[in-house]
Amino acid sequence: MAEAKWYVVHTYSGYENKVKANIEKTIENNKNLAEQILEVRVPMQDVVELKDGARKTVSKKMFPGYVLLNMEMNDDTWYVVRNTRGVTGFVGPGSKPVPLTEAEMKPLGIKTENVSIDFGEGDSIAVVAGVWKDTVGVVQKLDYGKQTATINVELFGRETPVEISFAEVRKL
């Protein structure tokens, strides 16, 4: 069995979410593919827009026209993805898809190395590095894919959720 890597698929502009849904539906219908296509992502980022003097946070696609896939590359997976409605092809020279490197994945918040942590949801943790250093919070959510913990911190008298890297915290 081959190792799963991250690949980039080019889609028609505006079809990113439809392609993601179509691939996920195909995986759902074919259990064999579920072990080979592990994750489908449309990378999003929160952007603050100023409209009519009001600040509004909006999620926008980081790479319009592209979808990321964590999958084992073989003839079956290549065929399924390549023949999904809205997909124009894999990113790479000619017809050979090229997986993303570790350096290319880091800015996307995708980490491949596994980190073991000694805390879970509901545990109190202390932030030991970064902008939230010396802050204490309770873990609300863990994201092993991005290797982050979402904690609630008190900011201006309110509980505010903050996403912190596993490397920047320790259990109390």
Automatic annotation (TrEMBL):
<dbReference type="GO" id="GO:0006353">
    <property type="term" value="P:DNA-templated transcription termination"/>
</dbReference>
<protein>
    <recommendedName>
        <fullName>Transcription termination/antitermination protein NusG</fullName>
    </recommendedName>
</protein>
<keyword id="KW-0889">Transcription antitermination</keyword>
<dbReference type="GO" id="GO:0005829">
    <property type="term" value="C:cytosol"/>
</dbReference>
<dbReference type="GO" id="GO:0031564">
    <property type="term" value="P:transcription antitermination"/>
</dbReference>
<dbReference type="Pfam" id="PF02357">
    <property type="entry name" value="NusG"/>
</dbReference>
<keyword id="KW-0806">Transcription termination</keyword>
<dbReference type="InterPro" id="IPR008991">
    <property type="entry name" value="Translation_prot_SH3-like_sf"/>
</dbReference>
<keyword id="KW-0805">Transcription regulation</keyword>
<keyword id="KW-0804">Transcription</keyword>
<dbReference type="InterPro" id="IPR014722">
    <property type="entry name" value="Rib_uL2_dom2"/>
</dbReference>
<dbReference type="InterPro" id="IPR015869">
    <property type="entry name" value="Transcrpt_antiterm_NusG_bac_CS"/>
</dbReference>
<dbReference type="InterPro" id="IPR001062">
    <property type="entry name" value="Transcrpt_antiterm_NusG"/>
</dbReference>
<comment type="function">
    <text>Participates in transcription elongation, termination and antitermination.</text>
</comment>
<dbReference type="GO" id="GO:0006354">
    <property type="term" value="P:DNA-templated transcription elongation"/>
</dbReference>
<dbReference type="InterPro" id="IPR006645">
    <property type="entry name" value="NGN-like_dom"/>
</dbReference>
<dbReference type="InterPro" id="IPR043425">
    <property type="entry name" value="NusG-like"/>
</dbReference>
<comment type="similarity">
    <text>Belongs to the NusG family.</text>
</comment>
<dbReference type="GO" id="GO:0032784">
    <property type="term" value="P:regulation of DNA-templated transcription elongation"/>
</dbReference>
<feature type="domain" description="NusG-like N-terminal">
    <location>
        <begin position="3"/>
        <end position="112"/>
    </location>
</feature>
<dbReference type="InterPro" id="IPR047050">
    <property type="entry name" value="NGN"/>
</dbReference>
<dbReference type="InterPro" id="IPR036735">
    <property type="entry name" value="NGN_dom_sf"/>
</dbReference>
